[in-house]
Amino acid sequence: MSRSRLVGFDLDMTLIDSRPGIRATYAELCARTGAMIDLDVVTSRLGPPLEVELSHWLSADEVPAAADLYRALYPDIAIARIEVMPGAHETLAFLRSSGERSLLLTAKNERNARHHVEHLGLAVDDVVGDAWREGKAEVLLERGADVYVGDHVHDMEAGRIAGVLSIGVTTGPCSAQELRSAGADHVVDSLLEIPALLA
Asked: How many Å from the N-terminal Cα to the C-terminal Cα in the chain?
């Protein structure tokens, strides 16, 4: 009997449109700390870990406390503001009906990623958070993943490092050309195209 495929997915701007929730959480962080953060810039380049983004706006010694506060604020502020991307439920349902397995693999804090899974009813089989680029590649290798779907060049680099089929979706900050240059085997405009691609 052949082994079922394991298909990994990034979260922010791949399975969910997290911009409204992230923007609102950053706004509250600024209100509480006095930090000067450009919300338009932040929400235009989602992908890297929170600490990486905060390092553009805060001194190194301010980042840890700000990250902790952001993550504490996030569940109450962000979760209800965020919706699934078109095709997310359909793609996960296709995998489950086909006997395939799914993995949510994200740079987002795992606890908050699981909040999204529960709130939105995302039918993923497993969740791994706090992983970015090489960290994602390590998880893909450890879990024996076959495919990774993401919206960021670092997702495509993770897939390339792990040697898995990498599918870029242009719903995030990176263009189709950027995704291809970073190692995408296929690029789609929407998750709605994924089932046919994987069939």
From this structure: 18
